[in-house]
């Protein structure tokens, strides 16, 4: 997918990161989000506006919060984003390594 629409894939990853950051930090201000995501306030503000217009975020003077639709989107998008970013593959490798680490060590040679 990244080969076909690389900029859209990156935008999806960035907006998902924004949604998850809001989920963890809510209510949160734009400046704090920009610092957390290492992005400019302008970029964060632009993405926040798009996500708010989509009904995924609510913006108030106290800060940005996820709406019910935003919470559902975070849950529904997680498997896709894990695949796109390779997190699911890394998780599989890590679980295999952990499994092999639990095997008993045997002295000697095997034939």
Task: Describe, in plain words, how this protein is organized in 3D.
The chain is mostly helical and 111 residues long. It is 67% helix and 7% strand. The chain contains 5 helices and 2 strands; from the N terminus they run H-H-H-E-E-H-H. The protein has a two-stranded antiparallel sheet with strand order 1-2. 13% of the residues are buried.
Compute the number of strand runs: 2
Q: Give the N-to-C terminal Cα separation.
A: 45 Å
**Number of helices, counting only DSSP H or I runs of 4 residues or more:** 5
Helices and strands, in order, run as HHHEEHH
Mean of pLDDT: 80
Structural class by helix and strand composition = mainly alpha
What is the overall shape?
A: globular
How helical, in percent, are the residues?
A: 55-70%
The largest β sheet comes out as: 2 strands, antiparallel
Radius of gyration: 20 Å
Q: Main sheet: which strands, in order across?
A: 1-2
- % residues in beta strands: 5-15%
Q: Give the low-pLDDT segments.
A: none
Question: What does the secondary structure layout of this molecule look like, with pairings?
Answer:
Elements: H1 6-25, H2 30-37, H3 41-53, E1 57-60, E2 63-66, H4 68-85, H5 87-101
Antiparallel strand pairs: 1-2
């Amino acid at each position: 997918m990244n080969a076909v629409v690389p900029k859209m894939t990156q935008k999806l990853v960035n907006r998902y990161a924004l949604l998850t950051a809001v989920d963890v930090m809510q209510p949160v201000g734009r400046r704090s989000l920009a610092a957390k995501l290492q992005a400019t306030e302008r970029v964060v503000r632009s993405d926040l506006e798009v996500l708010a217009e989509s009904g995924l975020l609510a913006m108030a003077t106290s800060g940005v919060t996820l709406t019910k639709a935003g919470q559902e989107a975070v849950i529904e998008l997680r498997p896709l984003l894990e695949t796109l970013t390779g997190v699911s593959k890394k998780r599989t490798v890590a679980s295999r390594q952990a499994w092999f680490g639990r095997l008993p060590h045997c002295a000697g040679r095997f034939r």
